[in-house]
Amino acid sequence: DVLNGYAAESDDLAIVFGDHTIVRQTGDPAPGGNGQFDPFPTQIGGAFGRAWCRGPNPRPNGSGSLIYFWGTDSQLHAASGSVGVIEISARRVRDYEDVDLSRFYVRMAWNTRLDELDIIATPYGGIDERTRYFVWERSTNALWEDTRFDASQDATDIIVYDGDKPDDRMV
């Protein structure tokens, strides 16, 4: 399978995204280390690049944060080394399914202030299309497409600014 992304969940646990597979990496992967790769039972993979982000920490059960990712099936999912893959966008209006991953790249960031996941799908250079914006709100479990009225507002990336103070985290 093709390697599309890598998300470290902790010092000794990571999620590896392939084109058609998702694998949990545990332990030390160096030669002679105790590393182990265990595939999740799924037929999907993760979109190429940084199409994932870490959610808030901790999860409601007190364990580490979930890794949210955009799948190769153009659906929103979450994954954890201990839980596996969770489909989030199932049974929703499917307006976001037409994000063609051969024409768009996806970026995500957790918005702590609004307790939501911000997602952008930006066209690769040279394509005459607009960036698309999606929001997943955790409290209502709602996913919707947001709009920008001016093309000059189209973003090409998304970043989290997190300074020294607890209240200065911004997307």
Main features:
171 residues, mainly beta, 4-stranded antiparallel β-sheet
Structural category is mainly beta
Stretches with pLDDT under 50, minimum 5 residues: none
The helical percent reads under 10%
By DSSP, the count of extended strands is 12
Radius of gyration (Å) = 16 Å
- Helix count from the secondary structure assignment: 0
Following the backbone from N to C, one meets helices and strands in this order, namely: EEEEEEEEEEEE
Q: N- to C-terminal separation?
A: 33 Å
**How are strands sequenced across the largest beta sheet?**
1-2-3-4
Broad shape: globular
Strand content: 35-45%
Describe this structure in words.
With 171 residues, the protein is an all-beta fold. Helices cover 0% and strands 39% of the residues. It has no helices and twelve strands. The protein has strands at residues 3-10, 13-18, 22-26, 36-39, 52-54, 67-70, 76-80, 84-87, 104-111, 116-123, 132-137, 142-146. It has a four-stranded antiparallel beta sheet, with no helix packed on it. A hairpin with a 4-residue loop joins strand 11 and strand 12 (142-146). The chain is globular and about 55 Å long. The mean pLDDT is 82.
